[in-house]
Amino acid sequence: MTRITPYRFPAEWEPQSAILLAWPHADTDWAERLAEVEETYIALVAAITRFEPAVICVADPDVEAYARARLASARVDMARVRFVEVPYDDTWLRDSGPITLVPGDDAHRGFRLLDFRFTGWGGKFEASRDDGLVEALADLGLFSNFEREVIDFALEGGGIETDGAGTLLTTWRCLSQRHPTLDRAGLSARLAGWLRQERVLWLDHGYLEGDDTDAHIDTLARFAFEDAIVYQGCDDPQDSHFAELQAMAAELAALRTRDGRPYRLFALPWARPIIDQGRRLAASYANFLIVDGAVLMPAYGDAADAQAQAVLAAAFPGREIVPVPCRPLIWQNGSLHCVTMQLPRGVLA
To answer: So which residues are the signal peptide here (predicted)?
Structure first.
């Protein structure tokens, strides 16, 4: 008898309705360097709208008017831009936005929006408005044919990676920090149940200086189809990350696909250290965003940018690789993937 699977957690490379993001403004943590980060957001929205719509959260009508004027003056395709007014603490929508499950074998079902608790990465920052973002967007009528499932469990979208076929990849450092009373078996069971996964793969190694997420997987290793993983490498033995990222690479090499084969691995190059006021910033090329027909790649103005573009082109054949200047983003410890959340095709009203 065929097993009916009501829902499925899709891979990022599957068809999308839009990319969700939030515009930075003076009441967010970007205030000190707002002009710089606005340029990144303009470039990001311009890149997204070449391939699909962008849905931009704005805090109030003034922020919307300003963002609209800036984007229009940059010749962004405004027919592909939609604004929604909603309160938010900051702009890291990968972690506060909805994790969307799509209908599985039963096509008559709608979408399921998983609304996990967002705690500001373990209570590091105020996050009450961000924690209410999914509910607020749903109440505004942004989504269609859906149910929202509230889950009293701290989980960020940047902390999980799926191949869309039942395998989840995550890091023990992050999940154990959020839930220190749970062992690996307990965490695996919960993640597999809520996210409809058949297995959970754990990485014990890998971190980036300047990262305050406790080693989110989307800064370290990402699926590129069911049998391939793109990961952040480090080839400088003198660098403080060398031992950890080499150990992570060995862990990835030991993983197996569901049919028992080694994964095809694509190592991303290592950018030279970016230091800001004595603090090293987390410049990861693994924080790329997949959109319909393309991969948007974080660029840091480093000589390694071109090599990273070539690696992603090999990992994602047939997709255009589009660099987006992200150096201003890493001042706040995240990059391109961290400020965006894809919405699967059909979920947008």
So the answer is: none
